Amino acid sequence: MSRSRAIASWFRSPSNVIAGTLVLGGFILAEIDWGFIALTGVGIFGPGILRELGWLRDKDEFEMRAARRAGYHAYLVGGLVVFLLIAVYRSLEGPEETPTPIDYPSLLVTTIFAVLWFTWLLSSLLSYWGALKSARRILYAFGTVWLIFNIMAGEGNWVTSVMQSLLAVPFFAAAWLGPRWPRLFGTILLLASGYFFYLFGYHEMLADPLAWGRSVVLVLFFGPLVASGIALFKSAQIRDGDEET
Amino acid sequence: MKPTHDIISHLRRHRLLADEMTQQELADRIGVTRQTILSIEKGKYSPSVGLALRLAEVFGVAVEDLFELEEGTSDV
Lengths: 245, 76
Prior knowledge:
The complex is a heterodimer of chains A (245) and B (76). Chain A is mostly helical. Chain A contains ten helices and no strands. Chain A has two domains: 1-58; 59-244, no CATH class. Mean pLDDT of chain A is 81; it is low at 240-245. In chain B, α2 crosses α3. Chain B has helices at 11-17, 23-30, 34-41, 49-59, 63-66, and strands at 3-9, 67-73. With 76 residues, chain B is an alpha+beta fold. Chain B has a single domain (3-73), classed as lambda repressor-like DNA-binding domains (434 Repressor (Amino-terminal Domain), Orthogonal Bundle), CATH 1.10.260.40. The mean pLDDT of chain B is 87. Chain B is globular, with a radius of gyration of 13 Å. Chain B has a two-stranded antiparallel ribbon with strand order 1-2. The A-B interface holds A 1, 60-63, 65, 128-130, 242, 245 and B 24, 31-36, 38-40, 42, 44-45, 47-48, 51.
């Protein structure tokens, strides 16, 4: 299925359109009242629950297997992250007046949800598309998000928008060239992740509980970089050329 | 040592014999995605009994003609 056909197929599915509308609507209406964020939850998890109940049959068995495996992987990673967080921050507890991330449950919950969701997404992509296609799709999606974000950040000044949009070019380049030299681009992506991690001061997050607000960005920014880097390495190991048929 | 079983798929050969039916055409006929057909052909996914029967029905052959059991051993 070509990419355009896959996108058209996604929009032809009523469940996808309804779920997408709920997710987007929930986020928009949350600006008015946080209660509306429940709509986003229904949009994200509702279709899966209906499929497990057998009331919605819009996925074939291979897609369902990928989703279920991803759910198990998210459970394993999410559970491990929860226990690591408890271990680290309970052991860091100092005097009562010193705040720790445990004093900010909303930040912790959001972080754990980001870990769960990202693990689920990455695993289901790998199971369904394979390593190479997953890496390309992650990079294209990530590049597109950065492109939109930077255009909007230009606030109407087209010169600024164009200049800032150039930041998305490396992601599109990696998506295009990565499959040709997967080890090289896998290495570049992982090194870039490490560089940005220190550049943005994320290594100081453990010592600064109030910096925990950035933990979601940590998952959603570095997650795609690390994930696509690892996926490219994995595709280099497979090297059977199956995924491009 | 437990025996391990892998499925060898002859789906691609049957598809090509059937007037070079495309993966998408086959997928549309049995109600799955093209990626599912691709994964079965590459041996990355072993279909359920129901799906295997539907595939065999499309080509008018027995399931055994489409899939073969490869038996081996491992230290698992």
